[in-house]
Each structure stands twice: as C-alpha cells, then as structure tokens.
Predict the structure of enoyl-CoA hydratase.
Amino acid sequence: MSYKTILTEVDGKVATITLNRPEVLNALNDQLMEELGAALLAFDADDNIGCMIVTGSEKAFAAGADIASMAKYGLKDVYRDDFITRNWEEIKKVRKPVIAAVSGYALGGGCELAMMCDTIMAADNAKFAQPEVKLGIIPGAGGTQRLPRAVSKAKAMDLALTGRMMDAAEAERSGLVARIFPQADLLKEVKVIAKGIADMPLLTAIMVKESINTAYETTLSEGIHFERRLFHACFATNDQKEGMAAFMEKRPAKFTNS
Ligand code: CAA
C-alpha cells in the first residue's frame, strides 16, 4: 500500500512507521491519522510482524494536530463529524506492542499520540508539551486523561495549564518515558528493543499488553482478576510448554506463537 504522509519499513519481525510531513514538523492532519491507522492495522494483521515502532524526524515526532486545518473547523467539523474519534483511535485496536520512538518535539496531539502507544522511548533532545491552552482549546486526544495517569496530577496540571515544554530527562523522571538514548542512536536502540519483544511468544506479549492496559480502565480487584484469568490462559499455549521446557533443558526456546 502506498502512503503520502508516512513511510513504512519492515526489518525482520519489526515494522517501523515514520510520520513524514517534515514541512510542518509532522503536524497531524486527517490524512496522516488515517494512513497511520491503516498501516498499524495492516501490520497488526500480518503474522510476520511482532512489534511496531512509530517515530518521526530528528526535529519532531509530531508538533501536534494540524493547526492550519483546525483553524477552519466549526462545530460540524468537530462535533457532528467527531474530530479525533473519527480517525485517531485506530491505534487502540492494535493488539501487538507499539513503541513510540520520540525525537524532538512531541507537542499537543504529538504527545497524546506517543501516549497512545504502549511505551515511549525518547532521544535526549525530546521535548513534550500540552500547549493547547495557548490556542484556546484543551487537549483533545487524551492528554488530560493519559498524562495525569503517566506523570501525576500535579505535573499534568502544570504542563497543561502553562503549556510549557518538558525535556527528556524530566519526562523520564516523571514516568512518561521508559528510556532515553542519544539522539543519533534512538532508532537503532529502539529497533533492538522491538526485535527482542517481537521474538517473545506473541500470544503472551499480547496478553501482557492487554493486562497492563486494563490497569488504566478498571479497579485493582477487577484488574487482578483479569490478570489471573489471562495468566491461567497462558497454560493452554504451546509457548508456555516450550518456554518452560527450554528453561529446564537449558536451551533457547523455539516459540511458535501458538
Ligand atoms: N500545525 C500546523 N503547522 C505546524 C504545527 C502544527 N501543530 N507546528 C508547526 N507547524 C508548521 C509551522 O507553521 C511552520 O510552517 P511554515 O514554515 O509554513 O511557517 C513549520 O511547521 C515550522 O514550524 P516553526 O517555523 O514554528 O518552527 P520553530 O522551530 O520555530 O518552532 C515549534 C517549532 C515550537 C514546534 C512551533 O512550530 C510550535 O509551537 N508549533 C505548534 C505546537 C502546538 O501548539 N501544538 C499543539 C496543536 S493543538 C493539538 O494538538 C490539539 C490536540 O490535542 C489534538
């Protein structure tokens, strides 16, 4: 499939999707979000792929929703046509792990898109912000909901009320970012991590993702119950038999994703 606003690359079991509107710092318009959703779902359906990376350029992961498009919007465009929901949420349907590799600006919708991914790895030049307040809007792609869950209420309020930028070190300290790498090494390092994840038994990786994501949607006791049932289900997979046999026999496991 050919896309106009993203680039796709497959290396072994890892698919990398690069946001590619460099002239506007990867501002997220309808076309980009539709293409990103289509690419993610296509890789999710591809049995040869085990993990996906979403990344941008050295200067910008994404500088937010496309302000030039939004400036023209009226109530019909946003409410009747369900702006954001209409094409930003395909990523939530993806079962396999998705890593955001963030270099440069991840602002507004860019920060929110990174947070929709399963984990965020950042370059040392990364900058995160929810600057929507300066445009007379609030974050509309989950920023007021996912950010406090990631970094605390105090810091989410600080970021979303002032619109200030948070650098990579602060983002890692705050829990938004899992790991930081020198900018020049970011993609190489994230691909190594993604390959390691893609080599894990796929059903188990999907269960890990589903169970951790459930922690954000439910009570502790319901979440523990859900985890326990998935844990039990692992014992019906061939990969549990193989993983444990390989450990006992002191040999590498040969998973079959079954
Ligand atoms: N939408 C559309 N175009 C954008 C953009 C955006 N979010 N961000 C940058 N651009 C464009 C600029 O208009 C500029 O285009 P021209 O060359 O045609 O003028 C080009 O990208 C380069 O940008 P700058 O010249 O501004 O580059 P800079 O290095 O001086 O500044 C920046 C970089 C600090 C990221 C600055 O561009 C900026 O503040 N951008 C807007 C960030 C923002 O407010 N994002 C939130 C959007 S709202 C949102 O995302 C809502 C939501 O919750 C979904």
In short: The longest strand covers residues 6-11. The CA atoms of residues 16 and 53 lie 5 Å apart. The mean pLDDT is 97. The two ends are 28 Å apart (CA to CA).
